[in-house]
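Annotators were shown the component list below and the corresponding predicted structure, then asked to write short factual statements about the assembly.
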Amino acid sequence: MRADILDSAARLFAAHGFRGTSLQDIASDVGCSKASLLYHFTNKDAILSELFAPVGREFDVLLGRLALLTGEEAAKAAVAGVVDLALHFRRQVKILLLGVDVLLDHPDLPDVDDVTEQLVDALVGRAPGQTPRVAGWMALLGIFLTSARGVDIPDETMRAELTSGAFRTLGLSS
Amino acid sequence: MRADILDSAARLFAAHGFRGTSLQDIASDVGCSKASLLYHFTNKDAILSELFAPVGREFDVLLGRLALLTGEEAAKAAVAGVVDLALHFRRQVKILLLGVDVLLDHPDLPDVDDVTEQLVDALVGRAPGQTPRVAGWMALLGIFLTSARGVDIPDETMRAELTSGAFRTLGLSS
DNA sequence: GACAGAACTGTCCGATCGGTCAGTTATTGT
DNA sequence: ACAATAACTGACCGATCGGACAGTTCTGTC
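Structure shown to annotators:
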């Protein structure tokens, strides 16, 4: 039953967003009462947390790889830049990339195409025979469509949480 | 006053999402009453629509460019693929890129790097001297961070609207 | 000063939200 | 068979939402 709830919640959250999905919606989809959901999960947030646990682990692995590829200082700047990037992007649709050039200049940085390929495979996935460049390009368009509609954005608290959490994963001091 | 409302709404929508921002929140930020908002705008949706009007125009320009670059059939497949992509991405964090290979094989397609550069410049922006590859890479990471949290997603209606709207812009029959 | 219309507000409403709780039904161990 | 526990539910609550509406204040024209 827990699994049924998580399945329905995942589909509904994805379809209508967290705030756009009520407990009643999930209960109707599962075929049980709203109160039953709150028997299995302490509250609505707990359902989301459990759904995002694997995503968080995946992200940690990604950050770990990034640290290995770029070294500590570069990774630190990159993570901060990426967080800024994500926030800025959502706010203005356009991103100005600042403060991430350290990635370009770092002597330990492997060939950018290799990194891109790894990232595309790890994050995006690729159809057989498709080049990572095109996959990345389509992903870029995906960003735009994703952001062209009103989406939630982390507030300042979540921003700090994201940044410090990433630093912690990388073993860096904030 | 209309401009003040739009400014506040843009900032608050970006900070907390559309559903996460109440009319009272906007009114408090502007420094007027909630009823005053509804004097200037027929309802909450009207505020969002007006905010997204320029984004829509920008997207239309992008799609127009895409049609020129790739030809009608390719553009059609690409747009459908991108819509699927955006939806799929949000749903499962990972994307499987399918049905977009036509972009790769199309004889009229210019060098992919040129297209990427144009897109990065148009959509993402670039710091002086930064290569589009790195900008695209960072944008890719931005996608992940953007999607790693619960976000709104277009429902089936909006999906159809996106697709048919894009087709209309490109002068294609749906 | 009188008036008109735009700008604005306080107050109320129905609907819906997340969550609580007492009570009922199903399942299990002995 | 029976008690104990898990699973589940209907009814309800306070809070908040978007929106409606009558009435008030501001601003400009004659």
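Statements collected:
1. The CA atoms of residues 117 and 132 of chain B lie 5 Å apart.
2. Chain B has nine helices and no strands.
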